[in-house]
Amino acid sequence: MKGNGITYSGADLIADALAAMGVELVFGIVSIHNMPIFDAINRLGRTRIIDVRHEQAGTHAADGYARATGRLGVMIASTGPGTSNTVTGLYEAQYASSRVLLITGQAETAFYGKGQGYVHEAEQQVAMLRTVCRRVESPRHVDALKPALEGLVRDLFTGRPAPGAIEVPIDLQYAETERSVFAFTPPPPFAPDPVRIEQFAERLQSARRRVIVAGGGVVAAGASEALQMLAETLDVPVITTVDGRGAIPEDHPLCIGNYYQSAGIYQSIADADLTLAIGTRFAVGVDGQGARFTPPGDLLQIDIDPNMIGRTHRAALGLAADARLALEAINKALVDVSVNDGQFNDTVFEARDGVHTAMRRRLGADYPRIMDLMRDRLPRDGLLVRDQTIAAYNFGNQLFPIYEPRTSMNPASGAIGPGFPMAIGAALGTGKQTLLIHGDGGFMFHATELATAAQYQVPLVICVFNDSGYGVLRWLQDTRFGRINETDLGKVEFAVMAESMGVPARRVRSVAEFEEALDAGMAAPGPYLIDVDMEHFAPMEISIMPKKRG
Fold it and tell me: Which of 176, 262, 364, 548 lies in the 20 to 30 Å Cα band around 73?
């Protein structure tokens, strides 16, 4: 170890590797089983460490960082309990196709696998991590550390993004090794088959009632410009998935938005003779709803993962390729283009406007004004992060306009709680003003990260829509069973909680108070929390408040 004659260690190799990959910051919690890595990173001074308060939150933050920046998100944890805490975050990253790397410790090699009760012993840690990672490495000699890490990272950057992990026994972190250059060159994007490109171009040219469905793969590939060019060339309406929001600006006249599973929009595109789907697996969703919305006409599907093509819906023509390269090639291959049928387009646009109006009406008297204030104050390139909550379902996921790629994110797996730490990672990674829509039930999962937000002065306005419980589940229970149980949590004073951890905050009970608090939050140099007491606002259509006591 340093100070005992060793000049370059396994921990130094890891620090150099992070710097070589351009990782500007990592999230972590220091432990006896990763101290050498933390020390090496700080001595090198090329990567900043963000000290989180829980490993699950740190992994979600690394995920948010990865989604917002397009770079590798990294979490450093301890072996055993620290690593088991990361599993939920890795599960979310896997579900969202997000590049997150977990670096964790392990018992020293002389005791690994012996079952002798070594502190934080985790004999099945690799098997556990493989359930939520595409690849897991466990080198047993310091000379195997560099090739293991290189191979792992290369895998994470090949094809569909995914999380991965490497466990490094503590003695390998201290062990002396030769200094060498960490070879990291991202593999080239997966190029499309030229013959299949011609087939796609021919099918697109022969159709007259086309619709495009753009998913998260468009955003991940940086294919927004190529998508917009294709849509404008063919005059085709573009529907996005929730993860594809921002692939085309939502104030673009051809953008329909995240409404594929809206009955009104689905009916309006029923006469389409072709659906071009890019970077989406057509997630099935709650109760298998998505599987019932069969893409109209012939389905032409592009995806980086060939296993996704035709998995949910039969594809008439499939193309396994990087979305940006595929769309750019199709744009070049198009000749003698005829634009979409005008009457078809008008029907779709009228349905879009009708759905928008109906959804806005269901927000009641107060929440449309709150949404408009949030959009007005958030810069065009500012980030909107949502947790799974009433406000997100009612306006955050669909009505709130998104204008640029990588500025919209939510828990892809449907989990409650990841929103807050994801927003921290996204805001720190981009330095952009970030707005968070959260519910009180989910916020309690990671409320301690308020201390992290305060420590690093994260540019984040946290809007906690507080209905004293799990509002979405209340609505589902009332709808299905006619009664509510185990979903009332009692009212928490989140403004007081936030201020106790160094985050300025205010509880609001009117739209006017919300506007004042929002302006204060946007002007603040760091985080600011707004506790929206929903009891005092006109209810949204699906809001079910707890019965008043006394």
Answer: 176
Is there a single domain that holds both residue 332 and residue 393? Answer: no
What single DSSP character describes residue 248?
S
Residue 38, pLDDT > 80, answer: yes
Contact 446, 413 (CB under 8 A): no
Residue 4 domain-assigned?
no
What's the CATH number where 460 sits? 3.40.50.970
Instruction: Kindly give, in sequence order, each residue whose CB lies less than 8 Å from that of residue 444, ignoring residues fewer than 6 positions away.
Output: 489, 492
Q: What pLDDT was estimated at residue 3?
A: 47
Beta bridge partners, 67, equal none
Q: Is residue 3 part of a domain?
A: no
Query: Do 420 and 346 fall into the same domain?
Result: no
Distance CA 23, CA 44 (A): 13
Q: Which two tokens stand for residue 193?
A: 């088959």
Return d(Cα 220, Cα 332) in angstroms, integer.
22
Q: Are residues 226 and 79 in the same domain?
A: no
Q: Name the amino acid, one letter, at 523.
A: A
371 and 349 within one domain: no
How distant is the alpha carbon of residue 226 from its chain centre? 22
Q: How many domains does the chain contain in total?
A: 3
What would the pLDDT profile of 431-444 be if each residue is shown by its tens digit?
A: 999 999 999 999 99
Q: What are phi and psi of 406, to 5 degrees?
A: 65, 20
* pLDDT score at 291: 64
Residues in contact with 224: Cβ distance below 8 Å, sequence separation at least 6, in sequence order: 218, 246, 247, 248, 405
- According to DSSP, the residues that pair with 278 across neighbouring strands are 214, 302
The answer to whether 240 touches 280, Cβ cutoff 8 Å, is no
Which is nearest to 544 in space by CA: 488, 501, 496?
488
* Same domain (yes/no): 141, 14: yes
pLDDT tens column, 492-504: 999 999 999 999 9
The token pair that represents 314 in the structure block: 């039969």
- Residues composing the chain: 550
Burial class of residue 376 (count of CB atoms within 10 Å of its CB; 0-12, 13-18, 19+) = exposed
Kindly state the tokens that stand for 542.
Answer: 């699906």
Are 57 and 147 contained in the same domain? yes
Residue 541: inside a domain: no
Task: Tell me how far apart the alpha carbons of residues 252 and 504 are, in angstroms, rounded to a whole number.
Answer: 37
Pick from 54, 170, 60: nearest CA to 112 = 170
Are 291 and 246 a contacting pair, CB within 8 Å?
A: no
Does residue 98 belong to any structural domain of this protein?
A: yes
Same domain, 466 and 512: yes
Which residues constitute the domain of residue 334?
194-355
Neighbours of 139 (CB within 10 A): 20
| Short-list 132, 143, 136, 121, CA closest to 167 | 136
pLDDT (0 to 100) of residue 183: 80
Contacts 24+ apart (CB under 8 A), 496-500: 497/447, 497/450, 498/450, 498/462, 498/529, 498/531
